[in-house]
Structures are given as structure tokens and as C-alpha cells.
Write the C-alpha cells for this entry.
Amino acid sequence: MRLPCPICGPRDSREFIYRGTALDRPAPDAGTEAWEEYLHLRDNPAGPIREFWYHHAGCTAWIEVTRNTATHEISDAVLAGGEGAA
Amino acid sequence: MLDLTAKTPCDGLLPVSHGPFTLTEIVPKALTSIAPFKGQAGAVSDTLQSAHGITLPSIGGATGNGSVQAIWFGQGQYLLTGPAPDGLDGIAAVTDQTDAWATVRLDGHEAAEVLARLVPVDMRPAMFPDGTSVRTLLGHMTVSITREGEGYRIMAFRSMAVTLVHEIAGAMEAVAQRL
Amino acid sequence: MRVKDRGRIDRESRIAFTFDGARYEGHPGDTLASALLANDVRMVGRSFKYHRPRGILTAGSAEPNALVTVGRGAEASPNERATMVELAEGLAVTSQNRWPSLGFDVLSVNDMAARFLGSGFYYKTFMWPRSFWEKVYEPAIRRAAGLGALSGQHDPADTEKGFLFCDLLVIGAGPAGLMAALVAGEAGADVILADEGFAPGGQLTGEVEDIAGQPAHAWAESTWAKLNAMPNVRCMSRTTVTGAYDQGTFGALERFPEGRGPRECFWRIAAKRSVLAAGALERAIAFRNNDRPGIMTAGAVRAYLNRWGVSSGRAVTVFANNDDAHRTARDLVAAGVSVAAVLDSRHDAPKSPDFEVIRGAQVCNTAGRKRLESVTYRTSKGEQSLMTDCLAISGGWNPAVHLTCHMNSRPVWRDDLLAFVPAPGAVPGLIPAGACNGVFATAACLADGASAAKTALRELGMTSPDVDLPDAGADAGRISPLWAVPGKGRSWLDFQNDVTVKDVKQAAQENFQSVEHMKRYTTQGMATDQGKMSNVTALAVLADATGRAIPETGTTTFRPPFSPVSIAAMGAGGRGQSFAPQRFMTSHAATVERGAPMIEAGLWYRPTYFPAPGETHWRQACDREVRYVRNAVGVADVSTLGKIDIQGPGAAALLDFVYTGLFSSLKEGRVRYGLMLREDGHVMDDGTTARLGENHYLMTTTTAAAGEVMRHLDFAKQVLRRDLDVATISVTEQWAQFAVAGPKSRDLLEDLLGTSLGGWPFMSCGPVKVGGVDGRLFRISFSGEQGWEIAVPARFGASLFDALVAKAEAIDGGMYGMEALNVLRIEKGFLTHAELHGRTTAFDLGMGRMISAKKDCIGKVMAARPGLVANSRAQLVGLKPVGEVQQLVSGAHLFREGARISPENDQGYVTSVCYSPTLGHMIGLAFLERGPDRMGDRIRMVDRTKDIETLCEVVSPVFFDPDGGRARA
């Protein structure tokens, strides 16, 4: 499996560490439910999913990858947070 | 009076050669990581230009040569080899890395074949020409590899020098045996 | 035997080899199989279940029968396919699955008992008694049913792995693959051409036909040579592409039989596009006793003749349902080999002036125990027998669609071809071409290969060159279905797993009608060849038995690897020293020289203790080292702790965000202890952080968590707090850092540095000159004594360590290892990952108040959940043995006195224990329900695994110097 790092280009998956679904961190006062959802509840779609990967053996950027769980097709990969490459 | 003596990271391990391949240690005078603060990359590049005659490289690149060189070292990070940089106070995080890395140089015709056994990135000269630099893996180690002329400059964590030499020398031997 | 004027072996040179001890000769260019056939060795193994005599069936990688062990002793490699082994001088080969010998095999009685050994035999028979499963049945079955055995020794042979990249990977160097590579190569694309054989041409290597006016094999060789000369093409022979994976990644096994360097290389190939030109595999026909030595595929008989100059028999019979097999008879007759007859099941089969064709004939039985002697065939006129020692069979060709199924696609049935072909878009970026795509005529294969390359080039944005298609045969031949000849007796489908037509029918009858169920019930297709020879035929038999059409019946899934890959090749680059990097401290050499046993901490190697003369037990060394620190001074290398340099206007805010405490309020030149939480409120790591300047901090992490913390900081600054302008970089490797601890530590350092340290309070830090070198000094303590950590650039580490140790030893101190370090910290109730094990909270550790109310931090919201701050939680306490038994054990659990030892009564557990030489008894750290409220209570520590019960008193986790006066002294 290869991931298209927005900084380094396509790289072998062994250079990356997986984190999980890309979610926005709730505000501190967002309430228990929002935090519960953020930490523990996950959709499990058979289709596209957005997830965080860390290019630990490369540029050390956190990236947000759109991956189809059914086909492993990767349709998008951007820097997590969305700024341009540095 | 205390008199500290210096040891290089690959002390007693190198040089090694197998067939056409040689692996030697490089001991840079100084290695300094430079991480420009937000919006300061241009100013940092200008400062380096006037102080040391080189600019910041682009992603996956290297600038300068010989005594002064800057390589791309990761997201928003560069490594200056040679002098300690001047004039970057307040515009970049500057960190001494001189002792943090074991630096070796791999030479020999078709050295890319040696690296193909170790590195999951295309190291062939046409794909990785002079003046390019990557952060990647070598075996299980994270490394920085820069093409320099016909050879490759490879940097790994200092503490992993024994493994670094073991892995590269092993691949050199394996490839050399078939030539 | 060899046939004159045929084959492309080097008859001038001879290669000696042995098979089951007997010496034979072959020639360069031979495979083991061709050499055995040339020497008239017909029987090469015993079958898996029935121990039936078996011979060579094919000439390629699908071979199910001729599995042998190559080599001796530790280097022996079992289950090698004789058809793929290149003959080499001195090759020692032994047959498998027979005892005591291939000719006389005791377990061939299984064959007599065959009617008891049908489908589901094991499931039905070895049910009772249950206690026999592992002790009796399994060993007996494993011995009886089997392949080659492992040597049981460490295989000394080297293997390697590697990574390759290309625009276009062409899999297979037959006509389609060669043509595809040629077109892409001439277009200037970066091409890899991989072929599993050692001679290019694929099926062409064994055929008599012309391409571009020259013999096909010569065209293949010259095209290969031309490609090899192109700098943009990498030609890889002996390389099997074993699997297709995501994003154009392929696994490939390259073999190096010449004996120099590693034996095999397992490549990961990243290809932007790929052309699959894997060819097709000839299938057999099922009929009674179709597994005798001497029964081979028609294509194999032809290949042995044309490529290796070997006649597979003296009087050969061909049995087929298609035109293609007639070429076997044609080539044999042309070479002067006698052809008994061509038995063609079709009533309209073509006739030939050169050999007898019997139309509408079906072979219904064979005879000959260790080699074929005769066949019986049936026509409308009745049954007749024919003396023959070789039967060349062909039931048609199965396109080698395997790789197109590796990403979950199922092939589609083509009724016109009687074959499965790849589904469109089966593997993204992969274009099938030639025979694997259902295109059989040579000319059409060449065109299909060229066309596939052009498609790939177009998708890559490259221009296709004008490449002329060479002239070649355009006839694909006709075929009519014939899967199994009806009749009594056993007709083999899966030769390797001994599965017959009867077994498949029985499975259907017992309602294992889904192809996936049939496969598992009968084990058809589950041998090392994954049923390459048998799947489609078995499917046809199942379809017939269940009254369905073949496409309705479906197929099972082909999975990687296409052909077997040794575990050694898969694991190459990860063996011995290459298993994981070794990280050595700058004091490593001096440490080893002192005889310290090393222990791994993460990837680091750290000393456990330093033995002294006269000591016979590690505890003596450990106690002595603890006393150095408590009474004089100890020196330890602490360089392995993670050190992260944090700079920028946002540095303080980042630390406030990742630590529970406030670091923005830390004064320059001071150090503070920090606790880091995961977002779910549990503790992730701890360590001290020093403020070196207004916008400059130095964080330390525990040794094994350094990488995880770095990743955590990157996530915090790149994702959660993009507003902060801050840079982080590891400086773990830059600095060699040593703890100098004990009441005499200041004396030692003042002497070493030649300066007074009177102005350095506890938890201060700053730059120092160490022998003229710029270093750093931190006044911190992990032992509870007055403690310092001194750091210098790593190149001076070894030298500084020696100096520190010499000075310490001169004032009744010395170096201490991990055991002593652990005792010292337990005596003080300091934490390591034994306590920060991922399920504990700041509250549990008695550090709830360290979560600052003044700001948000990672984990703060969740750490405040009622369940994480409930007093009923197990919380950190100290334990002191008070009964007769004085032993404490980490991992032991805690129970009230008198309570039954059961999970419901579990009150907590012990995390760290040691013998405290300072206190004179064992001490332990534990998590105990409502622990802080139970000081002075008694509790039972129970270790069921070691059968130890100890009565303990619950005490403060700080056993020694509770007010911390010694560290501040």
C-alpha cells in the first residue's frame, strides 16, 4: 500500500503510522456527549473515510487521507489542518 | 584540568568496502537544524544567502556544496552543514545537531542497487539526481539521504551507527558478490 | 530419454546430481524435472493422502506432483518443484512423503483403504475421544499426510529484500509480455520485465513455431536481449511476481541459483501501471487412474521434447479435447518418437497424415503401478486398450488470472473459450494481455501485448512508438468441453491434495454445494499449488453435480502468493541483527568492559548492574550501587531519555497544552516536572522540562516513549494548535547526559567543573563549561538524593563518562545500573511506565491537583469525568511486608484479610517491587482501591502463579525522606 504524502509524494505505507478517523477536537465546554463521540464513537462505512496518518519516517507531517475502506482506493491526501506544504 | 576527547559516531566501524562499493564516515564540522518561524522562510533564506552564500532548498532538495550545504530535513525543517548559522535569532528555531547523526557516504558504480535492498524510495540516479535529499527509512531506521555527486550521503541517529553500518555493509556485500 | 537434434541444452557440458542417493547426469539448461525424465526416472514422489506413486505432470510452476527436497542438512529446502529447480553441479535431491523409500512405502496401504478416506474423512473419523485430538490423532495424521519436512535447524542461507520502482511492470516474458515491454521500452518508459523462468519466451520456449521468420524461441531470446540492452528496461528472469497489492504494489520473488550472495530476494515493486502477461496453464482431464507416473500435460510433453530434447516416453499417446494438443503428436513424430495414437474426445477432431487420430475417444482407465503401462479408451465401438508409457493429456487451457483476483475481483466465464478470464478493472492500473486474457494465438498475443502497452503509455501521458508486429501463427485452435470421463473408480482432480471427482460429488451430496464449502470440505485447491491444475475442472464437476452452470457455481478466491514464497524471503532484512536497530549509549563500550549485563529499553541497551569482584549475585551489586547514591555519589548514563528541543513564540503555550501543569509560568533557568495525558484522560508520559530561554524549552520523556511523545507533540502543533508558532526537534542523540547523584555529587561536579555550584538550587538548570566544552547542567533528581544531570555533545560522552566514574570511585562512589536506579526511585515513590501503564489517571497517581485549572490541556476534559476521579478507584500506595513472608511480587493482586481470593474481591495490584537496602526490607508500589484512605491498614498480597501470599501494611508510596530534604540539600 502506498500513501500520497502531500509533501513527499507517494511513499510505502511502512513510512506511516495510522491514527484513526480524522475528527475535529471539540471545545473544552462542548459537553460530555461531544467528547464521548470524539473519543469513542466511530462510523464504520464501507466506502470513503477520512483518517489521520503520520509520516513518521518522512517529513513528520500529519496528513489527512481519504481512503475507501472497501477498495483501498485513496482519493485524496492533504496536510492535516489544510495549509500548504512547507 | 578535565580534557574531553571526541569520538566520532562510527569510530572503529568504517571504512568498509565490498567490490566496487565503499562506505566511509563523514564528520561534518557542524550540523544545525533550522526551522523558520511562521512566514519567515524567505527571511531565513535571505539571511543564509548573505551570511553563507546559500539559500534554503525546496522540498526534497539540497543547496550549496562542499563546505556549506543546506538540505531539506522534513516539514518546515532544514539542516545546515558546515558553519553554525548567524543572524537567525527570532526568525527561526536553530538547534545544534552536530553530534546527533552518524553520517556516512556510500560510493561505487550502481550504489543505487545497494540502497534498493534497504530503502523504500527510488534511489536510481535518474530518479534521485545530484542535489536531491529525502527523509525515509533504511532498514528499520529513519534516515536522511542526499545525493552528492556520484555518491550518497546517509544520516542516521548516532546511537544506531552500528546497525547503520551493519545494514549497508551487508547489502554492499550481497550485491558485490553477484557482480 | 534424450532425443537427437532437439532441445536447447548444452550437451557438451555435464552436470552431476543425485536423486535419493543415485547419481545422474544432466546438462546446462536442464531443470531437475527435464534431467530426471532424460534419465528415465518416472516416479518422483508419493501423493499426499493415499501415498500413490506420482511422476512429473507439468513443465512449469503449477506442478502439483514433483515436489522434492533440495539440499542437505540445515540448508535443505523442502517442497521444491522439480520443474522449477535449475540443475546445478552436486545438487542433492530427495523424494518426500514416503517411508522407508520411494519404491516401497509402508503408508501406500492408505491407497487400499481409499474408500474410507473420502471427503470429510478426518472430520467424521477423528471425533472421539476428545482427549485423542492433540495427542494421538494430530501427530498421526501429520506423519501420514504430508509434504517435505523442515530440517529443524537454523537455515544459514541469506535472503534479501528490496524495493523497485517503474512506470510499467510487465509480468511474464511470453509473446504478449515481450511485446508489451518492447513497445513501452521503445517509448522510453521505465520498464521492469519479470519472468519466472530462466529462459525468456514463456510458452514459446517449448513450441515449434515461427515468429518474424525465425524460430519463436530465438525471437524471444533476441527480443529479451534487445530489451536488456535498453537502459530504461530492467529484465528480471527467475522472478515470480507473487502478489498484486494496493496502489500498484507487487511482491516478487527473485531466485539466484548460482550460489553467490543471498539465495533469494523478495522485491516490493511499485509500478504506476502493469501488464499481466502470465500466460495460461494447461488443465488435465479427470478419468480413472489419471495420476500414474507417465501421465503428463500435453504441453509439458512438447516442452520437454522441444526445449530440453527429452522424450517423455517410448510410445506416447495423446488424449485431448482440443486442437492444440495435436501439436504434441506432430512434434514427437517429427523428432522420431513413436506416437501410439491421438485420442480426441471430439467427433470432428482434425486428422493428420503423420499419426493416428481416434475421434470420439475417451480414456477410461490406465494401468501400471510405478509407471504407466497401458490405457483403456472408450469409443462408440466399445473399450480398447493401448500399450503406452506416456499419456499426454490436455483438457484445454486456463488463463493465469491469479493476480487479477488478489484484490478481491472474481474472474468471468467465457463460454466460447471454456475458461475464466480477468474481469475488467480487476486490479487498478493492471492490464491483462495475451493468454491470461483469453487470447491464445501467438499473433494475437503479440498484438494484445502491444495494445496493452499502448494503453498503459497513454494513461501515463507518454507517446507510443510505431512498433511493427512480427508475423506469427494466427490459429488459436478449437476446443469442446470435456472435464471428467464418467465411470467407476477414482479420477483425480487435485493431484497435490489427492482429491477426486468422487470426493467433489460426495461433498455436493452432503450439501457442501457452495464452491467455498466444497473446497474446504474436500481440501481441493488448498495445497501449495492453490489448485492451479484443478480448480476449474473441480468447479465444472461441482456444477455438473449440482445441476448448475459454471458461472453460477462461481470460483474460489486466488490469494497471494501466486506460487510458494519461503518464510525466509518474506522475513528478509529482519533476521538477527537486522531485526531491530540497536541503540548504544556513548558509555556502551566502557559499560560492556565493566561486565555489565545489558537490558533492552525500547531499542536502547542499558546496563542492569556493574558486577564487582567477589559478588556472586546481582542483588549484591545492586545494593552496593544504591548505597553509592544514598551515601556517596553514583553515576549513571541517562542519555536514553527522550530530549526534545522546543522553540518559538508559541513554545510556552504548546507546553501548557500538552502538560497538565503550567509551563508558561516557569522561570528561565528552572526545571519543572510535567505530566502528559492522552485525550481520554489517562496518563501518557511524564518527565521534566527545562526553560532554557524565553522561547526555548527542553523537554525530557521516558526512554521508551520518546517517539510516541514526539508524534503527540507534532499532532498537537500541526493539527490541534495550528495557531502556535513553534518548532520541535529531537536532541536525544545530540547530548550525552549523565546523572550524578548522592550527597557527594556537588563535590564531584565542583571538582570536575572547577567552579562552585552553590548558586544552583534544586530544579535549576543552565549552561556550563565542561573541560572547555559547552555543556548543560540540570539540578534534578530521580533518586531523592541531591542530584544533577550533566550533558555534553555526544562526541565527548565516552570521555566524560570515564572522567565521572573515576572521580566517583575516588570518593567511595561509582556507577550504577538500571536495577539500582529502579530501587532508588521506588524508595521515593517516583513513577515509571510500570505505573504509567496506560490505564492510570493523574488522580490515581495522587497527582490530580497537577491538572491546572487555569487552562485547557489535552486530556483535561475527560480526566474530570466522575469515573476517573472516583475515590473507589485503585490509587497509588506503598506496601510494606509485615508478616512472616517478606516477599513482594509485581503483578500480584491485593485482597482484604480473610476475603476469599476471587476476582470480585480483587482490591488492586502491585506494579513495582524491590528490596530496599536503605530500609532493609522489600517495598512495593501498588494501586489499591481507596488507597489513600487506608494508610496503616493491612492487606493480603497474593500471587497465584508463584504461590506467594504476603501480609502487607498500606503505607505512603514515598518510603524514604518524605519531605524531600535530601534532594534540596
Observations:
- Chain A touches chain C through 28 residues (CB under 8 Å).
- Helices of chain A lie at 32-40.
- Strands of chain A lie at 2-5, 9-12, 17-21, 48-54, 62-68, 74-79.
